[in-house]
Amino acid sequence: MPMKKLPLLGGLTPRQFLREYWHKKPLLIRQAIPGFQPLLSRDQLFALARRDDVESRLICHFGRQWQMRHGPQGDMPPLEKKGWTILVQGVNLHDDKADALMQQFRFIPDTRLDDLMISYATDTGGVGPHFDSYDVFLLQAHGRRRWRIGPQKDLTLVEGLPLKILKNFQPEQEFVLEPGDMLYLPPHYAHDGIAAGECMTYSIGFRTPHYQELGEGFLQFMAESIELPGVYADPDLQETRHPAEISKAMLARVASELEKIRFREDDIAIFLGEYLSEPKPTVFFDPPPRPLSPARFAQAAARRGVTLSRKTRMLYRGRHLFINGESFAMDRADKALLTALADRRRLHGTEIPSASEDVMDALYTWYRDGWIELA
Ligand code: SIN
Ligand code: CO
Predict the structure, then answer these.
(1) How far is CA 135 from the centre of its chain?
(2) How would DSSP label each residue in 274-335?
(3) CA–CA gap between residue 320 and residue 335 (Å, rounded)
(4) What per-residue confidence (pLDDT) applies to 2?
(5) pTM for this structure?
(6) C-beta of residue 191 within 8 angstroms of C-beta of residue 130
(7) Which long-range contacts (CB under 8 A, 24 or more apart) does 63-68 make?
(8) Please, is 244 exposed, middle or buried when counting C-beta atoms within 10 Å of its C-beta (0-12, 13-18, 19+)?
(9) Strand-pair partners of 329
(10) How many angstroms separate the CA atoms of 92 and 122, rounded?
C-alpha cells in the first residue's frame, strides 16, 4: 500500500491519521470523497433489507417512542413519514461498488475492517444518542445529516429500550455533513446523527473481538489438537479412611499431566487466522452454476486472472494461509503468489502460469466453492 497523503483522510497520510486520531479523537473531513454519489439507490437498499441473508434493522422514533425491527424486512413505513431509519449491514458483501469503497480503507488491516453499513433515513430519522465499542468512519452519501458528538465519560443507557440510547447525552460539537463529507469517531465517543431531510449515511465499521470470546475460541481450538497419551496409574496407591476424598496424590499426578499442555505462538497464529477469516454466519457463497473443468479453468485463469469473491476473507501469517476459516501450510515456493492474492485480492492472468500444481488445485477448489472468481 502506498503511504501517501490521502484526500480520504483530509490530506493526512495513513501514518499521520493512525498516530494522531485513530482510537484517540474525532476527525471531520470535508469532501473526503469529492462529488460522492450514493452507490446504491434507496430501492436497491430496501431490496437488500428484505433478503434473509442480509442483516438489517428498522428503527422508528415516532412521538417519543423508540421501536426496532430486525430483518428480513417487509413493508417500510411511508417515505413521507418523518423519524424512521433503516440500517443495512454488510453491503460490501453484496455490491461491487460498496466492496471497492471498503477497499479504500485497507491502509487498516483486513483483520480489523468489519463491514460497510448503509443507513437510509427520512427527515429527523436516526438511531438516537449512543456510543459504539468500535471505531467508525461515517461517510455522508446522500442528503444532509446533523451530527452532535461529545467525549463524555458517563455512558449510562436508558433502561428498557430496544436500542442503546444514552441517558445523559452531552454533545460538545456539532457538524452538518454533506455528501462526500466524512466523520471519524474513536470507540466509545458519544454521537447522535439526525437526518436533515431524507439522507443516506455509510458507516465503515471495525472489528473488536472481545478477549473473552478469543479465549473461549482458543480453548476450543486447542481441545482439537492436544495430545496427552497414557492412562491414569497409581502403583503406589495407599489404603484410605476417607474413600470419598480426592487424594492429594491423585491431584498432583493429574496436575503434572495437564501441565504438559503447552501452546506456542504458532498455535495462536493458526487459531487467530481461522477465527478471523471465518465468514459471518449469514454469509453464503455462490458457486458457479456450471463450473469449468480444471483444464478449462486453468486456461481461463491465465487469460483473465482471478479475484477473491467479495465474501472471501483471506489472511496469512508466516507460512500459514487462512481462507474462510480454513488454514493451510504454504510451501516456500508458493508463498509469494498466495500472499499476493491475499493482499491484492486478485491475480493477473500473467501470474497464473507460475502457479505450482498444488496452488492450481487449491485455486480450482476455491473456484468451485465460489470463494474465488474468474476476473
Ligand atoms: C446511522 O447511520 O444512522 C447510524 C450510524 C452510527 O451512529 O453509528
Ligand atoms: Co454509532
Answers:
(1) 12
(2) HHHHSPPTT------SSPPPHHHHHHHHHHH-EEE-TT--EEEETTEEEETTEEEEPPGGGH
(3) 9
(4) 54
(5) 0.93
(6) yes
(7) 66/128, 66/161, 66/162, 66/163, 66/165, 67/162, 68/162, 68/163
(8) exposed
(9) 320
(10) 23
Eight-class DSSP state of 203: E
Q: Amino acid letter at 35?
A: G
Nearest ligand 1 atom, CA 202: 2
* Conformation bin of residue 160: beta by default, left when phi > 0, alpha when psi is -120 to 50: left
Q: E strands along the chain, which residues? A: 27-29, 56-60, 67-70, 84-88, 113-121, 136-150, 173-177, 182-185, 190-206, 306-308, 314-317, 320-323, 326-329, 346-347, 372-374
Task: List ligand 1's pocket residues with C-beta within 6 A.
Answer: 85, 119, 126-127, 132, 136, 191, 193, 201, 203
The dihedral sign for the CA sequence 282, 288, 289, 295: negative
The rounded Å distance from CA 116 to ligand 2 centre is 13
Residue 180: HSE in the Cβ half-sphere, 13 Å Cα cutoff:
10
Q: Which amino acid is at 258?
A: L
Cell numbers at residue 44, please?
436497491
Rounded to the nearest 10 degrees, the angle between the axes of helix 211-223 and helix 265-277 is 110
Residue tagged 443507513 (cell numbers): 119
192 CA: nearest ligand 1 atom: 7
Residue 28 backbone phi and psi in degrees, to 5: -100, 125
- For the segment 255-297, what is each residue's pLDDT rounded down to a tens digit? 999 999 999 999 999 999 999 999 999 999 999 999 999 999 9
The answer to whether residues 175 and 183 touch, using CB atoms and an 8 Å cutoff, is yes
Distance CA(196)–CA(125), nearest Å, equals 8
- Between the CA of 195 and the centroid of ligand 1 the distance, in Å, is 10
Cα 231 to middle of ligand 1, angstroms: 57
pLDDT digits (tens, 9 = 90+) for 71-129: 999 999 999 999 999 999 999 999 999 999 999 999 999 999 999 999 999 999 999 99
